[in-house]
Amino acid sequence: MTDEINAIRHGDLLIDPETGEILSDQDVGIDHLVMLLKDGQEQEKAWAASNGALKAAIGKKLDQAGQKAAETPYGVATWRTQVRRTASAAKIPHLRDHFGLTEAEVEDILACARDIDPKLLDGLRKAASPLLLEAIDALIEEKAVSYVLLQPLRKAAPRAEKVTVDREEF
């Protein structure tokens, strides 16, 4: 039986991304795989830094031109602004007192909560009654997630270097 899969190629090495199975005839050790991962992570960091700098430069050019977007042969660069709204449950006791909210109104607000911080719940355990302890245990769900974390060996730290730049050239 043959299956068609979208394998990932690293030179002569062919890997099934779903199973991690090495599909090529090469016998590679974990050292080689870790080296490839380390190289990939370094490239991702370099590309992320480069992309950030390029986005800043494009944003500056758009701002200088008084434009929100610019169409190029490579795509449309658009300056976006997002407003991210947050609300903190820690403010509720103060707001309850300040605005004179009823218990029903406080319950309505709490019903809007998507998540409760398990670490804060753990902090309640110290002075909690047995019933509150049981309620905390019932609220907290634990789920294990497994992944590979690569911590590369550290090389000598980069040196800071003073550079004179003539800003008028830019």
Key features of this structure:
two-stranded antiparallel sheet; 8% strand; 2 domains; mainly alpha; 5 helices; extended; 170 residues
Description:
The chain is mainly α and 170 residues long. It contains five helices and four strands; from the N terminus they run ββαββαααα. The strands form two sheets. Strands 1-2 form a two-stranded antiparallel ribbon.
Topology:
Blueprint: E1 8-10, E2 13-15, H1 30-65, E3 69-72, E4 75-78, H2 92-99, H3 103-110, H4 118-124, H5 130-139
Give me the oligomer status: single chain
Strand and helix order? EEHEEHHHH
State the low-pLDDT regions, or none: none
> Care to count the β-strands?
4
The domain count comes to: 2
Q: How is the largest sheet built, in terms of strand order?
A: 1-2
Number of helices: 5
Major β-sheet annotation: 2 strands, antiparallel
User: What's the rounded overall pLDDT mean?
Assistant: 83
User: How helical, in percent, are the residues?
Assistant: 40-55%
End-to-end Cα distance = 61 Å
